[in-house]
C-alpha cells in the first residue's frame, strides 16, 4: 500500500483549484498538453461540465466562496446550447448537466437549476431507441450506436424520476443498462467501447473497438465508466444484477493494473512498451470502486476500498502537478483517444474531476451526483 494523507491532499487541492480559478478565467477546459495550459472548448462539447463540477464538489467540502462563485453561472451558460447549438449536443448531456444544474440544485436548492436539469433529462430521454432498447450515442449517420460511457449519463434520468415522481426516465435508464449488460460486458468482466445495432429492427450487429485497441480488446476508461455506471444503477434500483456486473468489471480492472496501480490505456496490448497510461481511467475507476465498497456487505468492502486508495495514492505521488504552480491540470498522463492519436500524455479535465470527487469521498463527502 502507498502512504496517503487524504486530509492533506484535500487542502492541497483547495489551494491548487483556487489558483486554477485565476488561471482558467471563463475557459471551458478539456485538455492541457505539455505546456500545462488548458484549452477552451465550445460549451456544447461533452466535457463542459467537469470544470464547474469539480468547483462545486470542492465548494461542498470547503465552503470556499471563490469556488462557488466561479461555478455559479455554468448551468445557465450550458443551457444556451439547447437553443444555440442543439445539433451539437448528444448523450453526454448527463455529464454536462449533472455537474452544473443538478449539483447546483442539490446544494443551493435553486429552482431555475431544477428546470435546466429537467430540460437536459427530457433531451436525454428523447434519444432512447425503444426497439433496440438503448440510448443513442453521438450524432451523424451512426444512428444505431450505443457506448459503454453512457452508463454514467443514466444518473441524470434516475435524478429526473426522483424529482418529478415520473418513472419513465428511470424505465429508460434500466432498459438501456440491461442492453449494455447483455451485449457490452464479457464473461471475464472486460468491456468494449461501442455496440452497433440496427436502429430499425433493434437487432445487435457487432462490437466496435472505438477508443479501445480493437473490438475484442479492453479499453481501460471504458471499464472505469462501466464500474461506476453499473454501481450507480444498482444504487438507484436495488437490483443486484447491476452490482454483480460492476463487481465483475472491477475484478477485471484491478487484476489488470500494473505495479503502480495506474492502467495503460487498454488492458489488451501485446506489449506495454512505449504505451501510454491513462490517469483518467484510474481516477474514474477509483471513484467507482469507492461506490462499490459502500454498496457491498462490509466483509467484502476492503478489496474495493484498498484498490481505490492505492490508485489515488499513486496518482497523488506519481502523476500530480503539485510542484508546478503554473500547470493548469491536476493529473498528467491521461490518454484521450489513442487509436486516433489524439490527446495522448495530457491532462484531461475529467481525470481531474474524478480525482477530486474520489478524494472528497475519502474525506467523507456524502452527496452523490452520479
Ligand atoms: N466519453 C468519452 C471518453 O471517455 O473519452
Automatic annotation (TrEMBL):
Gene Ontology MF annotations: chondroitin hydrolase activity
Pfam annotation, one family: Glyco_hydro_88
Residues bound to substrate: 92, 149, 221, 225
Transmembrane segments: none
Active site: residue positions: 92 (nucleophile), 149 (proton donor)
Gene3D superfamilies: 1.50.10.10
BP-aspect Gene Ontology terms: polysaccharide catabolic process
Lineage: superkingdom: Bacteria
Alphabetically ordered keywords of this record: Hydrolase
Assigned protein family: Belongs to the glycosyl hydrolase 88 family.
Protein name per its UniProtKB record: Glycosyl hydrolase
Gene source species: Salipaludibacillus neizhouensis
Amino acid at each position: 500500500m502507498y502512504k496517503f494523507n487524504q486530509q492533506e491532499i484535500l487542502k492541497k487541492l483547495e489551494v491548487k483549484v483556487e489558483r486554477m480559478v485565476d488561471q482558467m478565467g471563463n475557459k471551458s477546459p478539456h485538455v492541457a498538453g505539455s505546456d500545462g495550459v488548458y484549452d477552451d472548448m465550445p460549451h456544447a462539447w461533452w466535457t463542459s461540465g467537469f470544470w464547474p463540477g469539480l468547483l462545486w464538489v470542492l465548494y461542498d467540502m470547503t465552503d470556499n466562496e471563490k469556488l462557488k462563485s466561479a461555478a455559479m453561472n455554468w448551468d445557465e451558460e450550458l443551457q444556451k446550447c439547447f437553443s444555440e447549438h442543439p445539433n451539437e449536443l448528444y448523450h453526454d448531456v448527463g455529464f454536462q448537466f449533472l455537474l452544473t444544474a443538478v449539483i447546483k440544485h442539490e446544494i443551493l436548492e435553486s429552482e431555475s437549476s431544477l428546470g435546466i436539469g429537467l430540460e437536459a433529462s427530457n433531451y436525454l430521454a428523447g434519444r432512447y431507441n425503444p426497439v433496440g432498447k438503448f440510448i443513442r450515442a453521438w450524432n451523424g449517420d451512426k444512428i444505431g450506436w450505443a457506448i459503454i460511457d453512457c452508463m454514467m449519463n443514466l444518473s441524470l434520468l434516475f435524478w429526473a424520476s426522483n424529482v418529478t415522481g415520473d418513472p419513465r426516465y428511470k424505465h429508460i435508464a434500466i432498459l438501456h443498462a440491461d442492453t449494455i449488460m447483455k451485449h457490452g460486458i464479457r464473461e471475464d468482466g472486460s468491456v468494449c467501447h461501442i455496440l452497433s445495432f440496427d436502429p430499425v429492427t433493434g437487432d445487435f450487429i457487432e462490437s466496435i473497438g472505438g477508443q479501445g485497441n480493437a473490438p475484442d480488446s479492453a479499453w481501460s476508461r471504458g471499464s472505469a465508466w462501466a464500474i461506476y455506471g453499473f454501481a450507480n444503477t444498482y444504487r438507484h434500483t436495488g437490483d443486484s444484477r447491476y452490482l454483480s456486473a460492476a463487481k465483475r468489471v472491477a475484478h477485471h480492472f484491478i487484476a489488470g493494473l500494473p505495479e503502480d496501480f495506474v492502467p495503460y490505456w487498454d488492458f489488451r496490448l501485446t506489449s506495454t512498451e512505449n504505451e501510454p497510461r491513462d490517469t483518467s481511467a484510474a481516477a474514474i475507476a477509483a471513484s467507482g470502486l469507492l461506490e462499490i465498497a459502500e454498496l457491498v456487505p462490509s466483509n467484502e468492502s476492503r478489496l474495493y476500498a484498498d484498490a481505490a486508495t492505492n490508485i489515488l495514492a499513486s496518482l497523488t505521488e506519481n502523476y500530480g502537478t503539485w510542484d508546478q504552480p503554473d500547470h493548469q491540470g491536476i493529473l498528467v498522463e491521461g490518454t484521450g483517444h489513442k487509436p486516433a492519436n489524439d490527446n495522448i500524455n495530457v491532462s484531461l479535465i475529467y481525470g481531474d474531476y474524478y480525482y477530486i470527487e474520489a478524494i472528497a469521498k475519502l474525506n467523507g463527502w456524502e452527496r452523490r451526483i452520479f
